Please model this.
Amino acid sequence: MPVSPVQVRLCPVPVVVPVIGGSLPNRQLSTDNPHLVFLSGGVDEPMSWRNLIYIAIILCLAGLSIYLSGRSPLTILRTDPQSRELSGVVSAYETIRQQADAELSSDQACQGAIEGMVHRLDPYSVYIPPDKAGAFSRRVMAGRLDETGVRLAQQGDKIILSGCLADSPADKAGLAGGMELLSIDGRDADEMTLAQAQAAASGQPDSTVKLVFRQGRQNREVILRAASFALPSVTGLVREGDGWDYNLDDSGGICYLRITEFLEQTAQEFHQAYQRLPHPRALVLDLRDNPGGLKDSAVAVAERFLSQGLIVRTVRRDGHQETCYAHSDGEYPLLPMVVLIDGQTASAAEIVAGALQAHGRAALLGARSFGKWSVQSTISLGPGLGLLYMTTGHYYLDEPPSTGPTASSGAATSAATSPARQRPGLMPDIEVKLSARSAERLAALRLQGELVRANPSTAPSTAAPAALKREILRSDAQLAAAVQFLRQAAPATAPAGGPGDAQEAP
Model:
């Protein structure tokens, strides 16, 4: 689908192509965020990025003109004084074209120049070439994957099918969890690592993959075509049939919702999930490992819990500001609430957590958040040129200072309005850390909670939902602390025993 030139997304590191390797779901693609991976439109802002697009157009035209006419780059650029600073780039291209042993087309040169320029900006800006632009748009904006949906796990020296992502080709084929993988496209599974097998089994868009499993005493051959399907961005604790189990405490009314990232449909998904909560008297909102997403989607979620006050303020390079305030329409009932955060809670997720903390609406529990305060925009460069996913501003969770330099001056007068690169992440009200081993185990358990298991086996990775839920509650010290806090904040929600007795996994 076409991408709006000003769709705004907030994310630690942008996702360029869907993840097809590894045994984790497609929620991580960040060198900063080891756990990905990614309703409203964007924000019309002054076109501070026009110069960059202008550069790209100049390079393409100059390269093509050089190739066809052999004219000097200085001659080409002489008619436009503003572009003379690019003469060195065009001269380098001419030298490469004439003397390099390898051939370089004008398209390759243009894309390489754009990629190099964007790489110089900051760690969060990237260039998306034309052949990856479609998959990028589907993944980043709509949360859609282009693959088979197969998820594998290691069990001893065997690779088994853990389960399938919901609504994926593998799910629609009715694959049963627990089957041993024998081969992929004729290659024996015992010749592959788990990561290699996962990548091969996921497939490439519009391609087919032939999988052979051992089911009981018989072999089962399945041919899957990789296709586009949507990932849910709002989940419960574990998948149960066609829905989710949202209960942390059946008799006490403590409910659980998790947002994995902020996509176009997240606010609507969240409201639908909230309406399914069984008589909630307290709520845990899990934003751990949430890399961010669309700003407007985050604002829409935060506004559900706030009746007034600032949610977020964005500031562009030229000083232009946009502020988003809460309104009382559609606000949820006032319930005791805890928001879980960690070192991978970033950007749009920090907007929600920070706004709820600032207004005293929820207590933050966990570890300090990532601390990414920049705004990314997806910008189309036109046919054949791809997309820019570029930092175009920064955001703040407070009003501008009432005295001192104006916002447009770029100066800062307080810690809250200091330059974004110097601001740390959100500090939790209640600090509870997980060991690296516990966090890794919990990530694996949460993945299992997301999978569809058509026929659970005795393998731990394909445990029944009730058993998996108990294991998650025993393993998640942060979730246990949140439940304990809510019991104390709202005694009427506290039954005897349950997840509050959980301890951190070794």
